[in-house]
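User: Once you have settled down, look closely at the record that follows, taking as long as you need, and be ready to discuss the fold:
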Amino acid sequence: MSMKVNLERRLRALKLVRALKKEYPFPKSELVHQTPFQFVVAVMLSAQCTDKLVNKVTEKLFRKYKTAADFAVLKPQELATQIASVSFFRNKAKAVVGTAHIIAARYKGRVPRDENALQECPGIGYKTAHVIVGELFDHWPGIPTDTHVKRFARKFDLTDNTDLKKISKDLEALIPQKDWKYVNNGLVLYGRYICKARKHDCSDHLLTKAWPPAGNRWPRT
């Protein structure tokens, strides 16, 4: 990639982040939880699933289970029956119980602040780990990329990649680390409530005004 393209993307990314910071000065996840480990569970369940559905499932689930120790005593199939509405519920149940065992035993039930430690748990990859440490500890060692972030990174021509982790690395190279906290939750909220994935006229939207060519770019999610 030419130095000119890199510079154009960096300047564009900075402009978009300025707009996001103004629109969402305190961006937060919409996953409902009362304890840190409940948030870990909610994020794990939210993969390829809407937050709205996850919140519906966890409303009842979280009345019974609050800590890693609570989830660690469950059998995966027992948890699976209680989260059957979410996608890939059997695999997610195994991952949640496995992660609960690790956090209960290795970290005395406390969710680690270290994103690398979290990625040693089943079902927790780069994106999930960075969402967790960002939300729970306001610690942003990386930019998590989900479907919303991927869509806007391509819509605004900030990456040539489709792999989520590669997109994260591209964005991290363009945006100062002090602003990483605004990217994921900001773009999730923006994509959820303002600029949805279906093709529409978005010329009057905040971010499209910052870079008008995006109004004609509709990458597949």
Summary: The chain has a mean pLDDT of 96. The two ends are 23 Å apart (CA to CA). Residues 29 and 185 are 6 Å apart (CA to CA). Residues 36-136 form a domain with the Endonuclease III; domain 1 fold (CATH 1.10.340.30).
